Amino acid sequence: MSEFILEMNGISKEFTGVKALSNVSFKVKKGEIHFLVGENGAGKSTLMKVLSGVYPHGTYQGDIVFNGGVQSFAKISDSVNAGIAIIYQELALFPDLTVYENIFAGNEVKHGAFVDWNRTIVRAKEMLQKVKLNVNPEVLIKDLGVGKQQLVEIAKALSKEVKLLILDEPTAALNEDDSENLLQLLRELKNQGITCIMISHKLKEVIAIADKATVLRDGKTICTLDASKGEITENNIIKNMVGREIDDIYPKRTNRQFGNSILELRDWSAYDPKLGRSVVKNVHLHVKKGEIVGIAGLMGSGRTELAQSIFGNPKSYKLQGEMDLDGKRSVFKHPQDAITAGIAYVTEDRKGDGLFLIQDIKSNITAANLHEISSRGFINSNEEVSISNSYKQSLNIKAPSIEQIVGNLSGGNQQKVSLGKWLFVGPKLLILDEPTRGIDVGAKFEIYTIMNKLISEGMSIIMISSELGEILGMSDRIYIMAEGRMKGELSIEEADQEKIMHFATQ
Ligand SMILES: Nc1ncnc2c1ncn2[C@@H]1O[C@H](COP(=O)(O)OP(=O)(O)OP(=O)(O)O)[C@@H](O)[C@H]1O
Ligand SMILES: [Mg+2]
Asked: What is the residue with the minimal CA distance to atom 26 of ligand 1?
């Protein structure tokens, strides 16, 4: 039998107007951890959807040889039965069901025609042990953090005798600890002979655990790098991904001169009546004109809640304290008030409240500032087209046209549309919440360059980020939050990774 558990030969896949994959070949050896890397829109997710039967046989060209046989999966369950499990970035668990119900949904332990719930729970415990998740199988999924939910997804995959485990950006939403746990688990699964394909934009991870890394660019295979030959280095990956070298992914800024205070919070607190507790506690913060202020902290430290409390309080927290915007005492009852006053907020959750996925790029870009392109209640469509095209170009949004539906764009390109939408508002203060989550290195560099340009034009930026490299590489000043409080403030000169983590874990 071949040493390869998977061979995808000459795969091509077209969507109307987009050639997502052209003649891609991809081979994976049994028992290896094989990364798929490439820029946003390179075709990584599409290739895995072809493999797992999301796009059935007959809707693509080329062939798939898995586990010694040519496969023509007509639906997802065919690939599952063959031993392939795929975990998408958007988790597919049922939030209102328990952990064990999720693990065995549709696959319960039966006794005759009846589900044997006691044995199902025992089996669930075994699966949870395999992924080293120490939770009661009877708790509800929605009561677990994302890191733990991710492990439940893997437990679910393992319950079905998986031979090949595919993870599409599994650590994008995880903090450093949870990511490290997950990587450790993948190493152990590898020792048990499970082959793993992983998609990630975090090069650190690729370098840490990949045996091989295949680079896709513009729907084509560029190369497969081999760790045992020392080929998996950051430079090598970036060079092959973007087709050029990037010396420093944080573009240098020479001028660090700031104007007056643009935002000032004094003794600012937010009480969440739904949770019955305060999510932001006695925060003092200021941002100057032309300044990038980074907010670091672990997941759940209150950073997003702080941003929302500033941006018109959409979750209706009970607010206390004072906020001055551009020297004026401000009370916003609704996000629209904040937008009118000059604040824009690019959310971390582009699927939830960032974008209208069923609409096209141009409607999304102009959505927050329609009056700018309207007269007497009518949208001037010529203007809408030319403005959207200019953002498509300046942000390098990869799509055949601005008429493309946003839900069909790759993850990173959706993020750029979201950024374009808020830049078009022309804010004084731009709040970016995890701005480069799921974004490839080349596009990150573009977004950082845009940020630098915006502040040189007098905008101010608050950047919430879990990537310490990005916080240290881009901020002028850094605040660190934990448990709803500001635990520390560091100038960029004094800041380093250890100091930030010290405050974040206080
Ligand atoms: N259902 C669809 N309809 C139309 N075009 C699509 C569809 N799905 C993907 N595409 C296009 O195919 C290309 C490849 O997308 P894909 O999602 O595979 O990229 P990716 O490499 O996973 O990117 P990312 O890192 O941003 O997730 C993109 O240009 C995307 O816009
Ligand atoms: Mg993808």
From this structure: 40
